[in-house]
Each structure stands twice: as C-alpha cells, then as structure tokens.
Amino acid sequence: MKSNWEEFRVEVFLERKFICIRFPYDRALNESLKKTTENAGYGWDAKRRVWLIPRSAGGLRAVGEWIEGLERMRIPVVADARVRRALDRASGGRLDSDARREYEKHRAHLEKMAESIETAVQDRIRRFQQEGRRRFGDLWDQD
C-alpha cells in the first residue's frame, strides 16, 4: 500500500513577477507555506491552482527555506535549474557551497574515475590503430 507522500510532489516554477508553487491539497503544507512566506506575501490563483509568492529577495529566501524543510522530510520537489539558481542567489550562495562541499567530499574518487576512463579510451584508440595497421598496413604505409 502506498503512502500519500509516495505519490505527492511539489512543483516550483518561475514567472516574470512570481514564484509559483503547485501541489495536491494538504492542509499542513498550506499552513507551513503561508507561515514561511507571510513576510514576503503570498496569494492563491484558484483558476490555475497555484500559490504565488512575489519574486523578490525575501520571497526567494522564504521559498528556499520552505523547500529545504520539504526536502528534509523527503517530500519530492520538482524545480528547474532557473528556480534553483534564483534560490541559490537569494540564499547568498549557500546552496552552491553545499554542492561544492559535496564535490570536494567525492573529488578524489571522481578524479580517479575520470583518469581510468581516459586511460580506457586511449587503450581502445591504440588497439583500433594497431588493428588498422595490421589489416591495411600496405595502404597505410603508402603515404
């Protein structure tokens, strides 16, 4: 049996003047969004069924905090790269520094993988060239 949260997801997207948030009705989530964004302001567009938060520094910070809370609760948040960049700028680069810290944590492993991939590609190219010379040596040496 699926829990309600398994099929639940929050969509966040940007419009010219607003940060738009859409999710299936959940009273607790509605209240948390209102409370988090009350200083920035919020509105409900009933026709499109989206929450509208002004696209200001305060609005972006409030939405960023709200999303972080959702992610801590493992609620899926769908936000495109534009949204993530805007939230990162509003948070003073905190999200970007979190990504940098994750990269640094795995850097040695990533560099080792890149090195082994490069070596494997070079080996395949070398074998391909050797096979070509073996098969077509007389044509190869005519130049």
Description of the structure:
The protein has a domain at 4-92: Alpha-Beta Plaits (2-Layer Sandwich), CATH 3.30.70. Strand 3 and strand 4 form a beta hairpin. It has a 5-stranded mixed sheet with strand order 3-4-2-1-5. The N and C termini lie far apart (71 Å). The mean pLDDT is 82. It is α+β, with helices and mostly antiparallel strands and 143 residues long. It has 4 helices and 5 strands; from the N terminus they run E-E-H-E-E-H-E-H-H.
**What's the mean pLDDT score?**
82
Structural class by sheet pairing and helices: alpha+beta
CATH second-level architecture of the domain at 4-92: 2-Layer Sandwich
Would you count the extended β strands for me? 5
Number of helical elements: 4
**Which spans of ≥5 residues are poorly predicted at pLDDT below 50?**
none
Q: Tell me roughly what share of residues is in helical segments.
A: 55-70%
What's the shape? elongated
Which structural traits does this protein have?
143 residues; alpha+beta; Alpha-Beta Plaits; five-stranded mixed beta sheet
Write the layout of secondary structure elements.
Blueprint: E1 10-14, E2 18-22, H1 27-37, E3 43-45, E4 50-54, H2 57-72, E5 77-79, H3 81-90, H4 94-140
Parallel strand pairs: 1-5
Antiparallel strand pairs: 1-2, 2-4, 3-4
